[in-house]
Specification:
The complex is a heterodimer of chains A (266) and B (272).
Chain A: H1 2-24, H2 26-50, H3 62-82, H4 86-93, H5 100-104, H6 109-115, H7 122-138, H8 146-172, H9 174-177, H10 181-189, H11 203-212, H12 220-227, H13 234-263
Helix pairs in contact in A: 2-7, 3-7, 3-8, 3-12, 4-8, 8-10, 8-13
Chain B: H1 2-49, E1 55-56, E2 59-60, H2 61-78, H3 83-92, H4 95-100, H5 105-138, H6 147-173, H7 181-195, H8 207-213, H9 223-229, H10 235-269
Antiparallel strand pairs in B: 1-2
Helix pairs in contact in B: 1-2, 2-5, 2-9, 3-6, 5-6, 6-9, 6-10
Classes of the chains: A mainly alpha (266), B mainly alpha (272).
């Protein structure tokens, strides 16, 4: 229990630090946020323009697609906010030998890596995700009862964990490949497929993003559960299962990687 | 002998790994960009499947597939970003150095960007283009593009490239007047991708917006060359579109020169 308290205290210090840096250049932060915001808005504009021409997309209405799109942003944003430093592992820390300083301290290495950086850009994703989800609530297309609301939060955090696990897995490959950034980029960008109903893809692609790099379970599949009354909550249960399994694999690989790093005389 | 191998083999192995990593990274990044095109591809198939009309936004489904990938090919040729270099130079203050040298700063940037563009065209855009053309003829059953068509497309691309770099030059110099260039660049890239027709053909925009677009350079950057390639512009329209591109090249060149004069005046005054 003491270790948990210690880590929480350390994290609180880092968050305070992070807020201070934002406040130092508020305008800069806001403009960066705006830039990021625009990137997300373009996707919605695309959907909007398309739906001027068609009544529905394989049974899905514009409002429903907007919900899926917005819902997809929230777990992504949570992961992006807290674990952005994992990218550095994939691109630089291992190959430059900068990893040493983490190994020297008597603290959990993974915690050290992610605690070093909080990424303000993520607030853009979270903001637009929240706006779109709230919009969907007002449009009445989302089921709002105790079970669904509770599972909504469960799904969001499970989804964030899946993102983190996939990132950590591919980043850990850097312990063997020296630089695994491009692979991580590919895996991460596959999440974009899951912003849309997976039925539109070919069987191979669908399998890939549902079971191999399971972003479908982060966005599309839970989102459809929250919208359609006749789907089972099993989707969220599977999502949690996947989150735990992938986290376990990713962390094991990361741990093994740090051991390999150490034994290489670094 | 074995000892020698054990000592020296790791050097070779490491260098091989390093080269593979660089090349691998390069191709992986290209794959990543193609992802977007594939998502678009599947989306459009689903969209046309959900519509009773065969022609949406002036394009049939087959034409739309060609559009999606030609946008990729065109954008990879045309969008050579120089604003990062310009704003970096401004921030670092090395712009002053460029005033001393007897070379036109902007021209050197354009030359650099063209070299970059030729490389990206050969590797691998031209291959993707050829692959797409084969797919277009064999699978989609559309007519192959004529030699004249290829020529016109390439000419249009060159003009689009010039429009883009000249525009980007002006944008890069904004770094002189503001410190918030990073966020603005993200906004610019998001907007540009959308306004140039890369996400969705301009024909999908509401009619009123399209009229406004007639007075903006964006549609001339990616949309126009791709439409020319698809053979959607013929006769008078074709001539008009290409003349419009040329007009934008001239306009942005002059605009860039004016801003540059303002910028250098400021520099000199500040004793930079």
């Amino acid at each position: 229990m003491n270790t948990v308290k210690r880590y929480l205290r350390l994290y609180r210090v880092l968050v305070a630090q992070f807020l201070k840096t934002i406040m130092q250049s508020r305008v800069d932060f806001l403009i960066g946020l705006l830039g990021f915001f625009f990137t997300q808005v373009m996707g919605i504009a695309f959907l909007y323009l398309v739906f001027q021409q068609i009544p529905d997309l394989q049974g899905w209405t514009l409002d429903q697609l907007i919900f899926i799109y917005g819902f997809a942003q929230i777990p992504r944003g949570i992961d992006h906010l807290f674990t952005d430093n994992i990218w550095l592992v994939a691109y630089r820390l291992v190959i430059n030998g900068d990893f040493d300083r983490y190994m020297l301290r008597p603290m959990n290495i993974f915690f050290q890596v992610i605690a070093e950086k909080l990424q303000p850009d993520a607030l853009g994703e979270l903001l637009i995700g929240t706006i779109l989800v709230v919009r969907s609530l007002t449009k009445g297309i989302v089921i709002v009862d105790g079970l669904h609301v509770a599972l909504f939060f469960v799904s969001i955090f499970a989804g964030a964990l899946i993102y983190t696990s996939i990132k950590l897995f591919f980043a850990s490959l850097a312990f063997w490949l020296k630089v695994s950034g491009p692979f991580l980029q590919i895996a991460y960008d596959m999440a974009n497929f899951a912003k849309y109903p997976t039925e539109i893809y070919s069987k191979g692609v669908r399998f890939l993003i549902t079971w191999v790099i399971p972003f479908a379970f982060v966005a599309y599949l839970p989102a459809s559960f929250f919208m359609k009354a006749d789907t089972s909550a099993g989707v969220v249960v599977i999502e949690c299962g996947i989150a735990f399994v992938f986290w376990w694999i990713a962390y094991a690989l990361f741990h093994r990687g740090t051991q390999v790093y150490e034994s290489a005389g670094n | 002998m074995r000892k020698g191998l054990r000592i020296y083999l790791p050097f070779a192995a490491n260098e091989l790994k390093r080269q593979l990593a660089y090349k691998g990274a390069f191709y992986l990044f290209i794959l990543v960009h193609l992802f977007g095109s594939f998502i678009s591809y599947y989306l459009w198939i689903a969209i046309y499947g959900s519509s009773e009309k065969e022609v949406i936004g002036g394009l049939t489904q087959s034409e739309m597939v060609v559009y999606v990938f030609m946008v990729y090919v065109t954008a990879s040729i045309v969008t050579a970003s120089i604003s990062t270099i310009v704003s970096d130079d401004v921030v670092k203050g090395t712009v002053a150095m460029n005033l001393i040298k007897p070379i036109d700063y902007r021209l050197s940037l354009i030359a650099m960007a063209s070299g970059n563009m030729v490389y990206r065209f050969l590797v691998p855009s031209v291959l993707i283009w050829i692959g797409l053309e084969i797919y277009k003829i064999k699978v989609l059953g559309l007519a192959p593009v004529s030699i004249a068509g290829i020529f016109l497309y390439l000419v249009s691309c060159v003009m689009s490239f010039l429009i883009y770099v000249l525009f980007d030059f002006c944008f890069g110099m904004l770094a002189f007047f503001t410190t918030y260039i990073f966020g603005m660049r993200m906004a610019k890239e998001a907007l540009l991708g959308f306004l140039t027709g890369q996400l969705i053909p301009i024909s999908f925009f509401p009619a009123a917006m399209q009229r406004v677009f007639d007075f903006l350079p964006f549609s001339s950057i990616v949309y126009t060359p791709v439409m020319i390639y698809l053979g959607k512009y013929t006769g008078e329209t074709l001539v008009f579109m290409m003349l419009r591109q040329a007009a934008w090249v001239v306009f942005l060149y002059v605009a860039g020169s004016l801003i540059w004069r303002q910028v250098t005046k400021r520099l000199v005054v500040l004793g930079g």
